[in-house]
């Protein structure tokens, strides 16, 4: 019965390839202010912020980096203090020992292999200690060179609800989205879903009655 309902719902809204442009157009209007929530002034601060954002909120990271970035301005600064001092400075972001170790390893590699600069290519970003695909995707996209689509909890939930993927694994979801979303929107698309997920398509009680996508969404309750 559930499968039958889902099948009927998908027929009602039409195939995903026919819907994706309209979904993008509406979200671009609805969330014209959608952007990354992390605060940073340069490429290094972006990388550090994203690395610290694992398993915590962007608000919490911004609270920590407000002071952190006054003290640590160059890759060398992260290596000039004892590991314990860096751990104390990022303690509030959680998993501080692992994050401090990853930050120090990354800074060392930036100095030794990249002239102290943050690389822009995915394959280079992924070599940095503590930088997994999601982090690399975020950094590349914010540097204006998206090479993939960021999949976080909001992107996963909304992609599934909108019928853009049946997958649950982030890598497979990203693969499905890359086939659907025009490449020029790879950078902004995750922000649009994240903001829509925070404002309208809530996890427990989605506001389908005010959603601009309700006629394009097979999960709509209206």
Silhouette: elongated
Q: How many strands?
A: 0
The count of helical stretches stands at 12
User: Order of SSEs, N→C?
Assistant: HHHHHHHHHHHH
What does this structure look like?
- The protein is mainly α.
- The protein contains twelve helices and no strands.
- The protein has helices at 2-13, 16-30, 43-52, 58-71, 75-79, 83-89, 96-113, 122-125, 133-142, 153-161, 170-180, 188-199.
- Helix 3 (43-52) runs antiparallel to helix 9 (133-142).
- The longest helix is centred in the middle third of the chain and has 18 residues, at 96-113.
- The relative contact order is 0.14.
- The model has no long low-confidence stretch (mean pLDDT 94).
Summarize the structure.
By secondary structure, the chain is mostly helical. The chain is 57% helix and 0% strand.
Provide the descriptors you would attach to this structure in a database record.
222 residues, mainly alpha, 12 helices, elongated
